Amino acid sequence: MRVCFYTLGCKVNLNETGALEQMFRGAGFTIVPEGEEADVFVVNSCTVTNFGDQKSRKWLRRAKRENPGAVTVLTGCYPQAFPEEAAQFLEADLVCGNGDRKAILDNVLKLLDGHERIVAIAPHQRGEQFEQQSVLKDLFLMGTSDNYGDMLTTMTAMSGFEPVGENGAYPADGMQEGYRKLLVYDTWKDSFAISAEMIEDSKLMDLKKQPAAFLTGYNRTREMFGAALLGNAIRGNAAAQYHGKSFDINAADGVTLFHTTHPPKVAGDNQCNSFKDEFSVDALGKLETAMHLFRGDNDEILDVAPDTIVIPENADLKKAVFAAIGADKDPVTANNAFNYQYGRWTVIVWSYLNQFITAGTKPWLLLDSKYNKTYGGAVWNDRIQLAVRSTIDENTDANVWRGRSRFNATFNDWRAFAAGGIASGNDLP
Predict the structure, then answer these.
(1) pLDDT tens, position by position, 64-74
(2) What DSSP designation does 76 have?
(3) Residue 283 included in any domain
(4) What is the 8-class DSSP label of residue 87?
(5) Does residue 130 carry a pLDDT above 60?
(6) Are residues 67 and 197 part of one domain?
(7) What is the CATH number of the domain that holds 403?
(8) Where are the alpha helices (DSSP H) in 88-209?
(9) Nearest 10 degrees: CA dihedral of 76, 79, 82, 88?
(10) Complete DSSP assignment for 290-316
(11) 3-state secondary structure of 159
(12) Residue 256 and residue 356 in one domain
């Protein structure tokens, strides 16, 4: 089966489409670009984009015209916000909101089996918790690879331009390779079996739903693996033990991600990105300043600019963070002074971290997301995307499901991160 996606609107929608693509791929679908024939066409709509409904109608209408037997889907923000209007999109065989991603696949499979048109928009209730979104894309530089392993490396900076006057000669400059680190890809597998008797006797058993359930377990594994790497780095470990296997989490300079003495490659003093101070308005400002002053391997100022706060699930820590950044008035004084931290931060509360940090501690991290994506602070590469297949065991008649993928992640350039609340860290300057 072939599926084509069309995304309208913001970056969030693009990320959501990526998650949908992964889910369909895990169910055995092939993702095809716009313009190719497909069995399923999905529009991920937006309420902000002007004329988004017109674009969706036009695209779905064309898909039906060029692929008469195809299933068409309208999902995203528009059906969620305007369910009655969206239900009138007769160009779509399935109209659904964005609150339950797994239901989209289930309903598409029903339509491919001949089910009549489906309108399945669950009204959003105040306080409703939608499916937890992955934060891996926010913490790691996500990529793919065709290699057995990839060498992660950086280059030292050049000295810069010099004034030479009229007809002056070009000064000789140069750079050299920084620290290097090899990322080798592990194979990840899982399987389960459903007996022939269970299939025969249980009316509730629907095999078509199993790939989606399998994918949920796979995504949870990836989330927990990422948390294991970061959590062990917070604890000062050089490696993370996960399901009986050791994973190297040192930065490329050979010391753990959060450390008081990161050595330079060429010139300069050791640097620190691990501090003991608990979170406060004052500590936030000091740690941000410390990151601004991070230097490269040639002792050059990098102007690292953190924009994201990462914390585990901790009520006191959440209260302190949101009190510090959530209002335009200074939370420390009573004179209505302006809070310069207001509106400047993205906050990630990552509950998976709690399983891999020391109980009772309250670590807090700052991340420069742009630096991380540009220079590869934390790197995650997928070598082989998840492939799910089903076979019948000839000896038992059981239906056996197997999933396989290859990926790995590690830390490369420590300067993308800094941490507070680390007992072994230094005092903030």
Answers:
(1) 899 989 999 99
(2) E
(3) yes
(4) H
(5) no
(6) no
(7) 3.90.1690
(8) 101-112, 136-139, 196-201
(9) 140
(10) HHHT-B-TTS-B------EEEE-S-HH
(11) coil
(12) yes
Q: What is the per-residue pLDDT across 22-53, written as a single tens digit (0 to 9) for each?
A: 889 988 899 999 889 999 999 988 765 444 56
- CA dist 398 and 242 (Å) reads 30
Q: Are 405 and 188 in contact (CB under 8 A)?
A: yes
Indicate the burial class of 89 (C-beta count within 10 angstroms; 0-12, 13-18, 19 or more): buried
Distances, alpha carbon 153 to alpha carbons 30, 122, 182, in Å: 34, 48, 9
Task: Identify the helix (H) or strand (E) that includes residue 406.
Answer: strand 399-411
Average pLDDT for 392-420: 91
Residue 219 has pLDDT above 80, yes or no: yes
Task: Examine residue 264 and state whether it is found in any structural domain, yes or no.
Answer: yes
d(CA 366, CA 347) in angstroms, rounded, equals 10
Given a contact cutoff of 8 angstroms between Cβ atoms, the answer to whether 220 and 243 are in contact is no
Contact indicator for 60, 43 with CB cutoff of 8 Å: yes
Spatial contact of 29 and 5, defined as CB atoms under 8 Å apart: no
For residue 359 the two structure tokens come to 């109980």
Domain end position, chosen among 120, 136, 156: 120
In the chain, the N- to C-terminal Cα span, in Å, equals: 59
In the block, which residue shows the tokens 């079996």? 193
Residue 76: give its domain's CATH number. 3.40.50.2300
Both tokens assigned to 410 = 């590690």
Name residues whose C-beta falls within 8 Å of residue 360's C-beta, 6 or more positions apart in sequence: none
Residue type for 206, please?
A: D
Decide if 377 contacts 411 (C-beta within 8 A): yes
Domain count, the chain: 2
| CB contact at 8 A, 274 and 255 | no
**Domain span including residue 358:** 182-420
The pLDDT of residue 155: 66
Q: pTM for the full model?
A: 0.68
**Residue that finishes a domain, picked among 72, 92, 120:** 120
